[in-house]
Specification:
Layout (H helix, E strand, L loop, with lengths): L1 H21 L4 H27 L7 H15 L25 H4 L4 H18 L4 H22 L6
Helix pairs in contact: 2-3, 2-6, 3-5, 5-6
This protein binds heme C.
């Protein structure tokens, strides 16, 4: 009886997972969600770093090192599958803000990604050292996020 219950629970769990997949049968939708999730994690980690740099939150060396480290870890994800051609905001106006330009001018966006990576690597070296070191490196990160958005993201919704 107990075992049967377990099996039922297990298959229910599996069904739930599979229906999450089924909800995005279109692989472009899945890719859009993945990249937006990636971006959201970046923002979630960047927020407190900016707050500390601006003195809106007390500087915490361990937390600063952790969050900058998270941004650095995200750089190591190979997210190339999250940007399939045809997943722009012309094809999916309600789902994405990614401009077609990303693909029509490719690999130009790579330059923005490179600037971003450089700024995150430098932030990661500095963030846990001191408030002054964090302040010296945080600006370039925010600017590189913004530079890419200004160029390749429609209508800021964040
Ligand atoms: C190389 C380009 C690039 C860089 C660098 C970049 N972004 Fe983005 N970001 C985009 C694009 C393109 C979109 C639109 C994605 C979509 O809607 O499919 C986006 C979307 C977002 C979104 C909205 C996600 C959603 O749920 O719709 C947030 C938040 C975000 N970015 C935060 C950041 C932060 C914070 C940084 C820097 C730490 C950053 N991004 C760096 C290109 C970039």
């Amino acid at each position: 009886m107990k075992n049967t219950f377990r099996v039922v629970l297990a298959s229910l769990g599996f069904a739930l997972i599979m229906s999450a997949f089924a909800a995005s049968k279109d692989p472009n939708i899945s890719a859009i969600k993945a990249r937006q999730g990636d971006m959201y994690i970046r923002a979630h980690n960047l927020g407190p770093l900016v707050a500390m740099a601006k003195g809106k939150m007390p500087y915490d060396s361990a937390l600063a090192a952790q969050l900058a480290g998270n941004l650095k870890l995200l750089l190591d994800l190979d997210t190339s599958r999250d940007w399939p051609a045809g997943s722009d905001n012309k094809a999916y106006p309600d789902k994405t803000a990614a401009l077609p330009k990303i693909w029509t001018t490719y690999p130009e966006i790579g330059e923005y990604a490179k600037e971003y990576a450089k700024s995150v690597n430098e932030l990661n070296e500095a963030a846990g050292e001191s408030l002054e070191a964090l302040q010296a490196k945080i600006g370039a990160v925010g600017e590189s996020c913004k530079a890419c958005h200004d160029e390749y993201e429609a209508e800021h919704h964040h």
